[in-house]
Amino acid sequence: MKEQSPPTSLPKYLAEGLPKQDTETLREVQRYIEALIKYRDQSVSAEELPETAEPVDESKSSGNGTVVKEKVTCGDDSCKCASRDPADMHGPYLYRYYRENGTMKSEYVGKPGSE
After folding, report:
1. Could you tell me if 59 and 98 lie in one domain?
2. Is the pTM of this model over 0.90?
3. Does 77 lie in the same domain as 52?
4. Distances from the Cα of 75 to the Cα of 20, 78, 80, 94, 100, angstroms
5. Do the Cβ atoms of 106 and 95 come closer than 8 Å?
6. Which structural domain, as residue segments, surrounds residue 20?
7. Is 30 in the same domain as 71?
8. What is the per-residue pLDDT for 63?
9. How many domains does the chain have?
10. What's the CA dihedral at 96, 100, 102, 106 to 10 degrees?
11. Residues 37 and 76 reside in one and the same domain
12. Maximum Cα–Cα distance for the chain, whole Å?
């Protein structure tokens, strides 16, 4: 069996460095990569979400991530939402929290009832 060529998308430093590693090191790298992928694919837990975020029914979560209802401020200092009193904040709106390259991110999904 001939040694595999690396994918063309693999960065040069990995394509050149990995073949130089012994088998046990490659197995350790494989375990690390599998754990990293598992971590990045998992839903964001309730403990990681902002205080104002309220997770919605899991069936509304699509793909990776966790869909939440959240009240927000608009950024206008003269708006009543600037007080950060939940009663004066805008929303609720739906956001999806997810991981990308190990960093938690969010994206606007819509208003409740429009998903």
Report:
1. yes
2. no
3. yes
4. 53, 9, 10, 18, 25
5. yes
6. 12-41
7. no
8. 58
9. 2
10. -30
11. no
12. 70
Q: Which residue, among 81, 82, 86, 83, has the nearest Cα to 54 in the 3D structure?
A: 86
Of 39, 60, 50, nearest to 106 by C-alpha is 50
pLDDT in tens, the chain (115 residues): 788 899 999 999 999 999 999 999 999 999 999 988 887 777 777 788 887 788 886 555 555 678 889 988 888 888 988 887 878 888 889 998 888 877 888 899 888 875 4
Quick check: helix, strand or coil at residue 100?
strand
- Asked whether residue 52 falls in the same domain as residue 87, the answer is yes
CA 32 to mean position of chain CA atoms: 19
- Sheet order of strands, 66-72 included: 53-55, 66-72, 90-100, 103-110
